[in-house]
Amino acid sequence: MVQLRPRASRTPASAMVDEGQPASEEEEGAEHGLLLGQPSSGAAAEPLEEDDDEDGDDGDDELDDEAPEELTFASAQAEAREEERRVRESVRRDKTLLKEKRKRREELFIEQKKRKLLPEDVLEKLTAAGQTDIKKASGKLKEANLKKKSGEDYEKGGDSKNTKEKVQKIQSVGQNKSYLAVRLKDQDLRDSRQQAAKAFIQKSLYGPGTNRTTVNKFLSLENKRLPVKKAAVQFLNNAWGTQRKQNAKRFKRRWMVRKMKTPK
Amino acid sequence: MGEFKVHRVRFFNYVPSGIRCVAYNNQSNRLAVSRTDGTVEIYNLSANYFQEKFFPGHESRATEALCWAKGQRLFSAGLNGEIIEYDLQALNIKYTMDAFGGPIWSMAVSPHGSQLLVGCEDGSVKLFQITPDKIQFERNFDRQKRSTVQKMLVDRQYMGVSKRKCIIWGVAFLSDGTVISVDSAGKVQFWDSATGTLVKNHLIANADVQSIAVSDQEDSFVVGTAEGTVFHFQLVSVTSNSSEKQWVRTKPFQHHTHDVRAVAHSPTALISGGTDTHLVIRPLMEKVEVKNYDAALRKITFPHRRLISCSKKRQLLLFQFTHHLELWRLGSTVATGKNGDTLPLSKNADHLLHLKTKGPENIICSCISPCGSWIAYSTTSRFFLYRLNYEHDNISLQRVSKMPAFLRSALQILFSEDSAKLFVASNQGSLHIIRLLEGSFKHLHTFQPQSGTVESMCLLAVSPDGNWLAASGTSAGVHVYNIKSLKLHCTVPSYNFPVTALAIAPNTNNLVIAHSDQQVFEYSIPDKQYTEWSRTIQKQGFHYLWLQRDTPITHISFHPKRPMHILLHDAYMFCIIDKSLPLPNDKTLFYNPLPPTNESDVIRRRTAHAFKISKIYKPLLFMDLLDERTLVAVERPLDDIIAQLPPPIKKKKFGT
C-alpha cells in the first residue's frame, strides 16, 4: 500500500479551529504522548513518517524481508478526525466553563448591589415622612453611632425635631423608635466645631501673648523674698537626661554580668 | 485611747477639676457649680455649704454656661451645642436639646424665668420657651436684631482694639440701659446702650478680667480676674446727700491663685470659683445681719464625698479618679518606736492595679470588698464588677459580664463584711441587694422607694454582722432595712440638714449619723430609739469649736474591741469620741494637747473629755482603722494639688 501523504489543507483547518487550540493541542500532545506539538506542520503526518522511518530502520537492520507496516489512509484519517474532535470538545468545555464563571460573578455583583439598598417599604416610609433625601451609611456605621448615642443617654424622638422648622440635619427614626440613624458628616462637623471652640479658648487664655508663668516659679516667689532665701519649690529636675540614665543603667548591668563571667 | 501605728499615705494623686461656671439660685439658696470635666455639683448654702447633689461628668460636655430657671430647674449649655436640663430629684439628665447653632457660648434666663436665650457660634441668638416638660424653640435672632429687650444677656464678642485682639469675656445689661463689659485687656467698661458710647473705663488688672455677675438689686456687681483677684463694684452716691450715684470699685479680694473664671452674686455674699479648683464664698459684712461665725470666709477645696475605699484584711486601698481606679497595697514595717517616731518602711507601698474605664463617662462611685476579692464601680450607663485573684504576689482580674441594667447610675456601692453581698443604691431611689457567688452573681432583692417620692439614696451603711442596712436620702430620714427578712425595719426621724456620714457599730448595732451642721446622732437599731448618750449630748449641745468646723465629716468607723469609741474625721482633723468620758461644755479646753505622762493628774482630769482630737494629719481625705493597732491616713497636701494645675499669670514682685 502506498502511504499517501495527508493533504496540506487539513492541517490549516485543524490549526484554525480555535485560538486557544494550539495551546490545548500542545497540552494534549504532552498528555497523550502524541507528537502534535507543532501547530503549522503536518502534525498528523509526521509520526507516521517517523514510525515508518523507525520501523524501516529497524526493519532494515534486522530483517530485510519484513514488509513495512501498512497503515491505511482510512485509519489515519479516522485517527486525525478523532484527535480533532477531542480537541474541539475540550475547547468547547473550556468555553462553557468560563461562561458559567462569568455568569456567577455577575449574579453575585447584582445581589450585593441589591443588598446595599434598603427594602422598598422602608424607603417609601421615609420619603412619605417628608424629610429630605437620606444618604444611608452602612450597617456597621449605624451601630457605631447607636453606641455613641446610647452612651450619652439621649432620649431623642422624631417629635422634637419636627417642631423646629429649620431642621437641616436629618435624623430618621426607625420603625420601632429603638435606634437613631445620624449622618456621619454632621457628627464630624460638630466635633470639629467643638474642637475649634476649645482651641480658641485655650489659645486666648494660655497661648502666645498671655503673660503666663510656670507653677514652680509662681510658688517660689515667696521663697525668694524671705529674709533667708530658700530654694525653689521644685528645685531638682528629675526628668533631665532620662535616656542617658537608662543607657547607663543598662550598660552597668551588662558590665556586671561580663565581670561575673570572666573569672570563671 | 491607745497607741496606733499610722500608715501615712500621700500617693493618692487627687487633682480636682477647675470650676468653670457658677449659678446661684435665690429661692432655695443653692449654688450650682460646673467643672471642666463636666460634673455639675449642687451646694446647699444654708446647710453649712454642703455639697448635697452632683451630676457626673462626661468627656464631650464642655459646659460654658449654667443657669437656673423658674421652679428650680437647672439648665446648662456647652461647646457641643446642646442645652441640657438636669433632673434634681432623680439625679440624672432629663434631656438634651441640640440648639443647631454650633457651640453655645452663653445662656441667660429671662427675669420671669420662662424663657431661655442662648448665644451660638454662628452669631445667632436663639430663644426657647420653657414648658413644664421641656424647652421649645421659639425664635431665632440674627446678629443685627439684638436690640430686642433682654435683660442680663451675657455674651462673647470680638472687638479689634490695639495690637492684639481684645476678647470680651463678659457683658452685663442693666435695666437702666447701662452695659458693663469686661475684657481681656483688664478693663471694665461702662457703655450707654441708648447712644452706644463709652461712659467710663476702669483699668483694674494687668491680665484678663474673665467674669462678671450683677446682684439682683443691681446696685453692686463683682468681677473676677485671671490673677485670682475678685473686685467688688458698688453704686454709691457721689456725696453723702446727693442722689447722683456712680460706680466705684470698693473691695479687692485675693483668695485665688489662678484664673477666676466664674463669679456669682447672692444677696449677702460673693461667690467665686476658678482654675485653682477652690470655691470661695465671701459673705459681705454690710449685708450680713448677725455677725457670727457664719459671716466668715468659706473655702471649699476638698470633696464632700469619700473617694477612697479600704480592704482591711489585705491592707489595700482603692482610689477613685474620674476615669480610672488605682489599687495600692500598703507598705509594712518591722520597726517599733515610741510616740511621734517615724518608722522606716521595710516594704514599700505597691501599685497593684490601674483600671481604666471604657467610654467618655466619669466614674460615679466605686468600692472594694473587705476581703479584697471584688471591685465594683459604676458610671451613668454601666456597672462593672471585677473579681480579683491573688497568687503569691501577682494579681489577676476577671470581669463579671452581663450585669443587669438596673444597676447602672449607682450613687453608692457597698459590700457586706463577709463580702458575700453587694448593696447598690441607684439614683432612682431603689436599693438593690445582689448575692455574690464565685465568678457570678444573683439578684436577691430590690427595695423600692416609698410611693410618691423619687428620692435618691446617697449613703449606705451595713452592720458588721450582716443583718441591717441603713440608707440615707437627700431629704427624708435614714431608713434601716432588715436584710434577713428583707423588710423595712424603722426610719430615723428626719433632720433638716443632710447626712454626711453613716456607720453601724459592730456589736451594739448603733447607727451613728453625722450631719452637715456637725451634729452627730447615735440611734440604736434593735431598740428603735436614740441612745442615752445621744440624748445627753443633744441636751448639752456640742462644743462651739466643734460646731464651727468648716468641713463635713466624711467617714465614721469603730474599734472592734472597744465599743465605747467612735472614730470620725473631716478634712482637717480626726477625732476619737470616747463615750465613757464626760462631755465638754463650752468652757473646757477643746483641743487637748497630746497627753504627756509628766503632767499632773489634776490637770489631766480637768481637761479630759470625750472628744480626743488630733490635727497632726491634714488635709485628710480618708482615715480608717485597719486593725486594733493600725490606722491609715490618706493625706493630700494642697501644694501637691497646686503643682499640677495649669500655669497662672506671672506676677512681678519687687526683688525677684
From TrEMBL, chain A:
Biased composition (Basic and acidic residues): 79-104, 133-168
U3 small nucleolar RNA-associated protein NOL7 C-terminal domain mapped to chain residues: 179-241
Compositional bias segments (type: Low complexity): 32-46
Composition bias type Acidic residues, residue spans: 47-69
Region described as Disordered: 1-104, 128-172
Highest taxon of source: Eukaryota
Full protein name: U3 small nucleolar RNA-associated protein NOL7
Organism: Vulpes vulpes
Gene: NOL7
From TrEMBL, chain B:
GO biological process: maturation of SSU-rRNA from tricistronic rRNA transcript (SSU-rRNA, 5.8S rRNA, LSU-rRNA)
Signal peptide, first to last residue: none
InterPro entries assigned: Quinoprotein_ADH-like_sf, UTP4, WD40/YVTN_repeat-like_dom_sf, WD40_rpt
SMART domains with a match to the protein in the record: WD40
A molecular-function term among this protein's GO annotations: RNA binding
Recorded GO CC terms: 90S preribosome; small-subunit processome; t-UTP complex
PANTHER family: U3 SMALL NUCLEOLAR RNA-ASSOCIATED PROTEIN 4 HOMOLOG
The protein, known as: U3 small nucleolar RNA-associated protein 4 homolog isoform X1
Organism (species): Vulpes vulpes
